[in-house]
Amino acid sequence: RPEEEYTPWLNGVAVKNKSRLFFLWEDGNVESFLIDGVSFINLVHFIYARKSTSNATLSSLHPSIPLPSSSSSSSSSPSSQSYHHPAAASDNIVILSHGWSEHDGPDYPFLRTVQTAAQRAGWHVITPDYRPSYQFGHHRGRSERVCRLLEEIICLPDRVPSSSSSSSSSSSSSATTSSSPAHRHVVLIGHSQGGAVSSLACTDRVVSAVGISGLLLLGSENPIAMDGMSWVPRVDHVKIVHATGDRVIRAAEMRSVAETWQVPFVLLDSPVPSGQRWENEDDIHHDFLSNDLLTSLVQEVEKFLNSVATSSK
């Protein structure tokens, strides 16, 4: 199918047998591929098993396949870490902040799809894991997430690794030199609570010191109403994208933020009934889970990153 089209994700389990992977999907289908032929960016993402009825469903479909135990993952809290996803030879960086996701952290379909889109556009993607902040109360937890993102911003490398870069120490300097940090672009993208986190990190001092070029909010929480954000982020490129049918965070909330900040506000429509939920109880509009919403959302992400990348600093 065309690259710009996305279909809804299926949950399942994978079994390795020699050089092949067997995928047993929750809809009852079974597929088999040579490991070397599987795209672990566009086709398959491995995530922690979510504690839900989906495991029971999979077990009933394929009772001979043992599923990951939820007790082992719930006994220990995730460590404070982030995941780096190199792309082409570019120093442009996206820091992608996930929404509330107690079991999966940044490993949920919508966020990984945005990550993939950014990588295909040639951006190095960093995805902080905010789950350690969930052990705190409401206000402390929100502050901890902002601190976590600021740590990530402060520790940005002078040069990011390339997925195609050579490890050979004999390479010439002209082949290994990349653009200087002064000429790279840094973009913050946030979904739901990650949108508020990204906004709050854009203080004048941080934006100026790091050179943040873009702020893209996707189905974001309202940082003005929820966190008392009193300043307008002085970022060259800011856009807010929201689904009309989102019943977790109403579009009108973020429209008011866009008007206050005087930035573009994009509404995405879908024939999916407002408030309808997916099998795992996620709001389809809030998490852009329908094919039409996801395709439109990816196009908005790609347009935004292209506009930032082609602008001068």
Write a short abstract of this structure.
About 15% of the residues have low confidence. The chain has 313 residues and is α/β, with parallel strands linked by helices.
Fold and architecture overview:
The protein is globular. It has helices spanning 53-61, 70-74, 109-120, 138-154, 173-176, 193-201, 204-210, 223-227, 251-261, 291-309, and strands at 12-17, 20-25, 30-34, 82-85, 93-97, 124-128, 186-191, 212-218, 237-243, 265-268. Helices cover 31% and strands 18% of the residues. Helix 4 (138-154) packs across helix 6 (193-201). With 313 residues, the protein is an alpha/beta fold.
Q: How many beta-strand runs?
A: 10
Could you say which overall geometry the principal axes of the C-alpha atoms support? globular
Radius of gyration: 20 Å
> What does the main sheet amount to?
7 strands, mixed
Distance between the amino and carboxyl termini = 37 Å
Query: How much of the sequence is in beta strands?
Result: 15-25%
Q: How many individual helices?
A: 10
In which range does the helix fraction lie? Answer: 25-40%
Average pLDDT, rounded to a whole number, is 79
* Class by alpha and beta content: alpha/beta
Q: How would you describe this structure in keywords?
A:
313 residues, alpha/beta, seven-stranded mixed sheet, three-stranded antiparallel sheet, 18% strand
